[in-house]
Amino acid sequence: MAFKLPPKQKDCAFRVKVAPQAGGMARGGRNQCLLPNNVLPADARGYGLLAVGRHPRKLAILAKGGIETRLASDPVEGEADVLIEATGNATGFATARSWVRPGGTMVLKSTFQGEISLDASGIVVDEITLVGSRSGAFPPALDLLSRGLIEVEPLIHGVFPLDHGLAAFEEAASGALKVLLSM
């Protein structure tokens, strides 16, 4: 599925400014969180990133890329200047929000089933900036891919010819990160 941004809408990767010494966290192990983690270190030299999630296999992909990782069940100390929230659930959102320092930025990647509770007063008092990010334009993404700044190979679990499409869907249903069909 593809989404088109409004004509003057900037992509999140270009809207959120990251200071060189900023500390950041990514909360959530959804597949969509693996690429933002992959892009940010290349774009923000000196940026200290911590990825927190429930899936050791996904965290291992990030760790291979030099990103510090932690299981969600482990205590996390400190606060993030920038936090990417990609948990997809209300509890994960609340925990992620508690990790953003006053004056920090929370990038929302999740789309939630139903509604979530939001402490608007806490966001106002702590002067938290919320940035929604659903999808972006293809040209900047293709540029990053062509320059080798985004490594997608670790996300690909298998490639199947189109006439083996049912086997590809079975593989995807087994918990594979990404399964591709080739033509």
From TrEMBL:
Its cofactor is Zn(2+). Residues 51-146 form the Alcohol dehydrogenase-like C-terminal domain. InterPro entries: ADH-like_C (IPR013149), NAD(P)-bd_dom_sf (IPR036291). GO terms for molecular function: metal ion binding; oxidoreductase activity. Gene3D superfamilies: Medium-chain alcohol dehydrogenases, catalytic domain (3.90.180.10), NAD(P)-binding Rossmann-like Domain (3.40.50.720). Keywords: Metal-binding, Oxidoreductase, Zinc. Pfam families: ADH_zinc_N (PF00107). It comes from the Bacteria. Belongs to the zinc-containing alcohol dehydrogenase family. PANTHER family: GROES-LIKE ZINC-BINDING ALCOHOL DEHYDROGENASE FAMILY PROTEIN, NAD-DEPENDENT ALCOHOL DEHYDROGENASE. This is Alcohol dehydrogenase-like C-terminal domain-containing protein.
